[in-house]
Model the fold of this input.
Amino acid sequence: KAGVTQTPRYLIKTRGQQVTLSCSPISGHRSVSWYQQTPGQGLQFLFEYFSETQRNKGNFPGRFSGRQFSNSRSEMNVSTLELGDSALYLCASSAGGASLHEQYFGPGTRLTVT
Amino acid sequence: QKEVEQNSGPLSVPEGAIASLNCTYSDRGSQSFFWYRQYSGKSPELIMSIYSNGDKEDGRFTAQLNKASQYVSLLIRDSQPSDSATYLCAVNMGAGTALIFGKGTTLSVSS
Done:
C-alpha cells in the first residue's frame, strides 16, 4: 500500500506571498492532519480533516487554512507569509475511526520564507 | 494547556545496551499514546502505540503506560547504532486524531 505523499517537497517563497501545499493520504484513510515542525517549537498541530470537514484546529492564526476533498486528498494554504512560517510542514493520515488514532506521516514539505 | 514533556537528552548508550526513554503528559483523560522515531532530515515514523496500562512489546521495543502517574516510556533492547535518532512521544488528548507531541529525546548509540 502506498504511503502518504506530499507535494511539493521544497518551496522557497517571499514574505507576503501565499502558498498551497498538497497531501494525498494512504488509500482508505479518511482523516488527514497537518503539523508544523520547527527547531524551537517542535511538532505543532495545525488542523485535522475527516470526511471533508475540519474536526480539530490548533492554535494558529487564520492565515493558515485547509480543506479536504471527496477523495480524502487535502490541501493547506498559508497566506501573507511571514519569516516565522519557515518550517517543515507534515501531513499525517489515519483511518480516522473512534479508536483508530494511529497516524502515518508523509515526507513533508520544507518551506523557506525569505 | 495540554502538554507532553520529554527529556531532550542526548541519551547516550553503548551498542547492545537498553535505552530507556520517558514521557509525561498533563491531561489525565488521554486515551492514546504513541512513540515516533525521527531520523535527521526525515519525517516521523510510528514505531509503537499503546492504549491501556501495562507493557506492550514489539520486537526490541517495549512501550509502558501508567495512566495513574500520567507516564509513558519506551525501552529499546539490544540498542543498535541504527537506533540513533530523535524519539517523539505523542498523546491524543481529545476528539479526533489530533496529537500533542513532546519536543523529543535524542538517542545516540555508540558502537
